[in-house]
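Inverse folding, one chain.
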C-alpha cells in the first residue's frame, strides 16, 4: 500500500469487494440473475476472512511477512492464476452455457457473444471497475470517475493484458465446449495456460503470448493500436 495512505475500513472493504467480485457481478447483470458470489455460502465469508487477515491480522503479520517473501508471493501468484482460470470458466462462460434458470436458456447458450462476454467480464471486470472509479487513487480522489482510465491510455497499453487474456481464453474455452469436450477438460486447460503464463512472466516478463496473438490479429485486420485524430484522413473537409 502507499505509505501514509489513510482510508476508512468501510471504504477499503467496499473497494476490495468491487475488485474481487465486480466481474462476476457484471456477468450477473448481463445474464439478468443474482451474482453467484452473493448466493454462495462460502465466497463472501472467505473474502471477509482474507480481508480481515490482510488489514487487521495480529502483529500485522500479512504486511510484515508476505510482501517481502518471494516464495510466498510465488505460490500466491500460482493461486491467483488458478483463480483467474476459474473466473473465466466456472464463474464466466459456464454461467451462460449451463444456466437453467432462464426462460431463454437455449438462446443464451447459443449466443457466442454472451458466452465470451461473460468469461471476459468475470475475469477482468473487477479491475476495470476499480480503475474506472479510481479506487487505487490517493487522498479523497477515490470513487470518482476518471476522465481516461488507464486501460484506455495509449502510453500504458500493457494494462489491457488481463482483459485481453480473459477474452482469448473465453474464446478458447467456448471452442472446447462446442467441440464436445467436457467442462473438466476445459477447466484444466484454462488452469494450465494461466499457470504457464504466470511462470513465463516470472522468467521472461517481456514475453506475453496473449498480447502477441492479439497484436497479430490486429495487424492482419489492418487495425492500428492508436488512432491519430490529427490525421488528414480524419479531418472534416
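Residues assigned per position:
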Amino acid at each position: 500500500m502507499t505509505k501514509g495512505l489513510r482510508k476508512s475500513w468501510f471504504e477499503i472493504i467496499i473497494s476490495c469487494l468491487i475488485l474481487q467480485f465486480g466481474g462476476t457481478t457484471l456477468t450477473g447483470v448481463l445474464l439478468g440473475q443474482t451474482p453467484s458470489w452473493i448466493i454462495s455460502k462460502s465466497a463472501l465469508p472467505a473474502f471477509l476472512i482474507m480481508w480481515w487477515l490482510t488489514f487487521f491480522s495480529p502483529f500485522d503479520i500479512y504486511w510484515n511477512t508476505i510482501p517481502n517473501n518471494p516464495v510466498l508471493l510465488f505460490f500466491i501468484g500460482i493461486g491467483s492464476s488458478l483463480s483467474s482460470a476459474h473466473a473465466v470458466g466456472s464463474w464466466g462462460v459456464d454461467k451462460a452455457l449451463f444456466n437453467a434458470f432462464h426462460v431463454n436458456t437455449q438462446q443464451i447458450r447459443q449466443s457466442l457473444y454472451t458466452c465470451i462476454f461473460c468469461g471476459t467480464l468475470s475475469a477482468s471486470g473487477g479491475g476495470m471497475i476499480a480503475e474506472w472509479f479510481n479506487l487505487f487513487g490517493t487522498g479523497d480522489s477515490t470513487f470518482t470517475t476518471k476522465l481516461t482510465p488507464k486501460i484506455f491510455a495509449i502510453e500504458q497499453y500493457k494494462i489491457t493484458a488481463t482483459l485481453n487474456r480473459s477474452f482469448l481464453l473465453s474464446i478458447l474455452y467456448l471452442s472446447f465446449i462446442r467441440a464436445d469436450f467436457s467442462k473438466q477438460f476445459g477447466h484444466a486447460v484454462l488452469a494450465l495456460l494461466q499457470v504457464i503464463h504466470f511462470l513465463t512472466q516470472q522468467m521472461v516478463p517481456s514475453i506475453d503470448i496473449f498480447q502477441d496473438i492479439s497484436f497479430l490479429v490486429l495487424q492482419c485486420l489492418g487495425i492500428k493500436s492508436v488512432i491519430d485524430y490529427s490525421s488528414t484522413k480524419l479531418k472534416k473537409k
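The chain has a mean pLDDT of 85. Residues 70-97 form the longest helix (28 residues).
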